[in-house]
Amino acid sequence: MLTLTAADGHQFSAYEAGNVNAPRGLVVIQEIFGVNRHIRSVSERLASHGYRVLTPALFDRAQRNAELGYGPDDIEAGKALKAKISDADALLDIAATAAAFGGKPVGIIGYCWGGSMAWLGATRTQHFKAAVGWYGGAIAANRAEVPHCPVQLHFGEKDKGIPLSDVESIKAEHPQMPVFIYPDAQHGFGCEERPSYNAADCELAELRSLAFFAEHLR
Length: 218
Hints:
- With 218 residues, the protein is of the alpha/beta class.
- The chain has a single domain (2-216), classed as Alpha/Beta hydrolase fold, catalytic domain (Rossmann fold, 3-Layer(aba) Sandwich).
- It is built from six helices and eight strands, in the order βββαβααβαββαβα.
- It has helices at 37-47, 72-83, 87-99, 113-124, 164-173, 199-216; strands at 2-5, 11-17, 24-29, 51-56, 106-111, 130-134, 151-156, 179-182.
- Strands 1-2-4-3-5-6-7-8 form an eight-stranded mixed sheet, with helices on both faces.
- Helix 3 (87-99) packs across helix 4 (113-124).
- The protein is globular.
């Protein structure tokens, strides 16, 4: 774990994976469960494709070292922690994480809450050359915002928390943006520790994400 400092002086931890000298970087943004075992595993897997990966502990602003599982109590605890952190403060931490790459081309990818924050990282900052969001529930509400970099999005058709009408509204607002819908997928289909995990859709979405970053992080 690294310690990074945001523009407002807040110090937070960031999980580091991959070669520090890799020519390209990725910022991975957590779900509402902290930088837990699943997110660390995702970070390591993405790093194995030639990236230096940094994963900021966004919950450090509310509770340091927060790491949750996926049970009902964990969900409520995660929602409570998230409620204590504004988008603006989370973006300060995301910007500081991007700056830690020292000017190398950087992309951002996030899951659940992180998917929404990846969208805001693309629209409200200019630190990234590409952004990918997986099942970000707040993207539709902010769909009118204009990204400063190419964006790719992934949603499950059977996601009970993100209606297809929300996804269609995003597509209508940004008709040129690649938005993938997975017919058999539920919310969290990319998390192997959730009952909703769908190995085939997770693999396909990750391949698409990696191809997108390979194209744009130059």
